[in-house]
Amino acid sequence: MGVRVTTGSVADEEKAEFWSAMVSRTLVPVEVHPLTGRPFDGLLESHRLGYVRISTLEADAARLSRTADLIARAPRTEPQVGVGVQVSGRAVLEQDGRRAEALPGGLVLYDTERPYAVDFPERFRTHLVHLPSRLLGAAERDLRLAAGTAVGPADGCGPVLAPFLGVLAASARSLPAPVGDLLAGRVADLVSAFVAHLVAGRATDEPDGPDEHLVRRVREHIDRRLGDPELTPERIARAHHISVRYLHRLFEGEGVTVSRLVQQRRLEACARELGRRGRTAPTVSAVAQRWGFVNPAHFSRAFRAAYGVSPREWRSLRNDEAG
């Protein structure tokens, strides 16, 4: 089920407030400040594809602000990463002290957990994609490094990601739920690549030290071997010719233990697979085993602790949302 609203039938003096409320209710709470003296005109269309929400905003010049106060007052929700694809007009994003401008065809990335503001100096049209940040498999440090930055339509991932998201936004309303679920996985993969591209671009000015390079190698090693139930800190350390103590010291700065990271990445993979619809959906136990969980009871407890529901309830909720 999608959302489509315009300010067309709203009284002139209430148009901006109405559009702000709809954007806040559908995406994340923001304040909208029109930048013209005339009655505000805006359109919002939004659809959910599995765990991804893709929206199109078209409106008069305005400033959209997500303040620390709005974040503090809002009900606690899962952290989200947003990607903006500028279709027409300009967007100037400010987050974490950075300022990034996106021209038509350009992309920006932002983190909804921290304050940000976007200025649209003239009438604009943009596609916004929101998805849980945990599905990207990126370290929190990398997300902070990437947020508040942009790429042009011909740079890096731009020529791939921007057209794909544009077509997806245009066709989202007509996609069958199973197709939308599959495409959500591709969106997560592409946004992960976008984050990696942004981080690599910023690292050219501040190259990674040997520890940062090793942390990346370890993370890649873990992601390639999630299905191996013997993926332990001892084996990971041995594969990289370092001690277990040094391995744990490397990840102290990441804010997560190695064992916790392995479990987190396995749970994310299980959540993605369980959220997909299909005629021959695998059993919960089969999904758990495929991603390295050997004890069904342990998997169920860990999944509930991470997502607040059992694996079966998660599957049911995702199917209900898609339907």
Kindly describe this structure.
This protein has 323 residues and is α+β, with helices and mostly antiparallel strands. It folds into 2 domains: 3-196, Jelly Rolls (Sandwich); 210-322, Arc Repressor Mutant, subunit A. The chain is 45% helix and 22% strand. The protein is built from 12 helices and 12 strands. It has helices spanning 15-26, 68-73, 140-146, 158-171, 177-203, 210-224, 233-239, 244-252, 258-274, 284-290, 296-307, 311-322; strands at 3-6, 31-34, 42-49, 52-59, 62-66, 80-88, 91-95, 98-102, 107-111, 116-120, 124-132, 149-151. The strands form 2 sheets. The protein has a 7-stranded antiparallel β-sheet with strand order 1-3-4-11-6-9-12, with helices on both faces. A hairpin with a 2-residue loop joins strand 7 (91-95) and strand 8. Helix 3 crosses helix 5, helix 7 packs across helix 8 and helix 9 (258-274) crosses helix 11. The chain is globular, with a radius of gyration of 21 Å. It starts with a strand and ends with a helix.
Q: How large is the count of helical segments?
A: 12
How would the global form be characterised?
globular
Helix and strand composition category: alpha+beta
Give the terminus-to-terminus CA distance: 7 Å
Question: What CATH architecture of the largest domain do you see?
Answer: Sandwich
Main beta sheet, described? 7 strands, antiparallel
Give the strand content: 15-25%
Unreliable stretches:
none
| Count of folded domains | 2
Q: What name is given to the CATH topology of the largest domain?
A: Jelly Rolls
By CATH's scheme, which homologous superfamily of the largest domain applies? Jelly Rolls
What is the CA-based Rg, rounded?
Answer: 21 Å
Count of β-strands: 12
CATH domain class of the largest domain: Mainly Beta
Walk across the major sheet and give the strand order.
Answer: 1-3-4-11-6-9-12
Succession of helices and strands: EHEEEEHEEEEEEHEHHHHHHHHH
Helix-residue proportion: 40-55%
